[in-house]
Every structure is written in C-alpha cells, then in structure tokens.
Fold this sequence. Notes:
It comes from Alkalicoccus halolimnae. InterPro entries: Glyco_trans_1, Glyco_trans_4-like_N, Glycosyltransferase_grp1, Thiol_BshA. The protein is α/β, with parallel strands linked by helices. The chain has helices at about 15-30, 70-85, 95-110, 120-125, 130-140, 150-160, 185-190, 215-225, 240-250, 265-270, 285-295, 305-310, 325-335, 340-355, 360-375, and strands at about 5-10, 35-40, 50-55, 90-95, 115-120, 145-150, 170, 200-205, 230-235, 255-260, 275, 300, 315-320. The protein is about 45% helix and about 15% strand. It is globular, with a radius of gyration of 21 Å. The relative contact order is 0.11. The mean pLDDT is about 95.
Amino acid sequence: xxxxxxxxxxxxxxxxxxxxxxxxxxxxxxxxxxxxxxxxxxxxxxxxxxxxxxxxxxxxxxxxxxxxxxxxxxxxxxxxxxxxxxxxxxxxxxxxxxxxxxxxxxxxxxxxxxxxxxxxxxxxxxxxxxxxxxxxxxxxxxxxxxxxxxxxxxxxxxxxxxxxxxxxxxxxxxxxxxxxxxxxxxxxxxxxxxxxxxxxxxxxxxxxxxxxxxxxxxxxxxxxxxxxxxxxxxxxxxxxxxxxxxxxxxxxxxxxxxxxxxxxxxxxxxxxxxxxxxxxxxxxxxxxxxxxxxxxxxxxxxxxxxxxxxxxxxxxxxxxxxxxxxxxxxxxxxxxxxxxxxxxxxxxxxxxxxxxxxxxxxxxxxxxxxxxxxx
Length: 375
Ligand code: GMT
C-alpha cells in the first residue's frame, strides 16, 4: 500500500538526521510519497528524486520574541502540509519538540493523520533528566500513535526515566550500503603519507563531551607505545580544541591526524584497521555501523545501545567506560593478529548486511505505519 508520509528531523549533520533522510529516500524509492518538513534541506537529501518533496519551516524572529518560535512554526507548517498533501503519516524524529509539534498539528486538522515518533536518545538520555522537560517528553511519546527507539536499551532507559505507559518498538538504524562499503584503501594511505604497514585507528564524532574523545587519544597512546600506528580523528565540535591541546601535550602531533568534518568518511574508514567509540552515552552509535559496513572491526564502550551493535568477540570488542587499558589491550589483540583482524572485519561486514539490513528495516517502518492506519 503506497502512503503519503511526512518526515520531520533535525536536518543538520547528525545520526538522527542521516537516518531520517535515508529512510525518506528509501520509502520514496519504494513508491511512497515523502514530504520532508524541516527547517532546511536535510544534508544528503536529493529533492530532485521522484516522490520526494521539501517543505521549509520558516521561523520568523520578530522583535517582540526573545526566542523565535520554531516549535509553533513547525506545528503550523505540519498542519498545512497534512491538509494540502493529505498525509497519512507524520514520522517525527525526537520526542521534543517534534512529537509535541506533531500533536498540535494533528489537533489542528481534527486528527486526520497518524503520528509515529522515533526516539534517538539525546532527548531521553540528556533532556529526560531535566524535570522541567520530562513531563513534556512523556506527553510527546504518549500522544504518538506508534513509538520506536533505535535500541532496546533506549526503550529500557525511556521506561525507567520517564515511566511511559505505551509500547515502544525497537527499530535499529541502517546505513546506505551504496556509500558505506569496503573501498580500496591503498591510494588514500599513500596520499596521507601513511606507510602501507602502519596500522590505522579512527574515531568519528561530533566531538561533544559525551563522546569522550580524550579516551580515544589515551587508548591510541597505549597502542602506539607498542606498534607503528596513526590515529584519524574525523569530525568537528565543541571539544575539538581541548583534544588538539591534549594531542600536543602528549607529543602525538605527528601520529594523530585531525581531519575536521569530512565528505570522504567512507574512504577514511576503509583505510582504518579499527574504529573506536568510547562514549559515555550512545543510544546506538551509527558511526559504528558505518565502520562495520566498510569492513572495519569496532571497539566501543559498554554503554546504551553499543552492545546491541557490536557482538563482543565477533565484530569487535566491548570495553568498560573510561578503561583505556582495556580498550588498548583489545585494539592490540586485533592489530597484532592478522587472522583475527580479517575474521572480525568479515564478521562486522556480515553483521552490517544482515542484522542492520536496510530493506528489512525500511519494511519494519512500513509495517508500523500500516498498523497505525488500521486503528
Ligand atoms: O550523538 C549525537 O551527538 C547525535 C545524535 C543525533 O540526534 O543524531 O545521535 C543520536 O542518534 C543517533 C541515530 O539514531 C544514534 O546513533 C546516537 O547514538 C544517538 N546519540 C546519543 O544517544 C548520544
């Protein structure tokens, strides 16, 4: 059954925006009509594709408003699009503000749409602790017609923290396998001046405090003490200046490449022997899946949804939060044993293709949409 689906997400670079955009494009390819209702054109969205439409939410900043009313402008735009385009489904990513704006929009059109909300983590694990917002987040969740979360651990945390009383389905994230696949690494290694035998560790994030990039650097320091290696720090964010200083203080400037935001993430991952994610909060860790799809073994912390992505001892290793000795020991175990590295790389690739298969996951969302339309 072809449906008319509205999608709202934060369109800027970030896992939730990427997943929402990829999902919209995949649904459009399957014949659904997809309407993005966002404050700007989502990164990676090609609006010239068939069945894709973009509705910009314009936020006016009149002098009387101390804060521009994004949530209300969004609700108003959602209501317009639901009416004009006769949307069946409004799929919002993040409970606040998006599910709350969707609820307002639904009220404005007398309930003529179903709301599906996907939780990505930040609204629950960061904002859920703020008592002034937790009632609002619970409201957004409970007023949705269906709710999904990107990991089972995120459901556990949501129920524990917010005491929600509605069913939530786990629907894992997926990546576009036309972008993330094992590529030929030789030329890029040469271009970066990295020797063919030198091992490469990498980290990709938005350099927020929760990503604990300093643990990545300390882990690398311990690995480099034993073998020839380089570290690629890919991405940008508030902690980058602190990390740059740390790298300098540790005398690792020549071993650590700070690349900033990159369009060639898949290429950089493909020349990596290991990918590290040492976060203190992570509902899923999309960057782990991106690395696995490039055939790279991953090491992540025992936090949030990470253990659902990495099968410990198969596609990589799970270490305790903050334990850089343990992370370095796992990294060295992989890097010193070529046979193990190849086995783990193949397992990572296989897991990305099966457990996180794009077609299966898009079908799960379609079934959830259909279920809401039956009620
Ligand atoms: O982690 C971030 O800083 C960005 C954030 C987002 O909203 O894009 O990521 C969240 O959603 C991603 C996609 O579902 C997940 O892969 C990330 O684990 C999750 N981040 C956190 O839970 C901290």
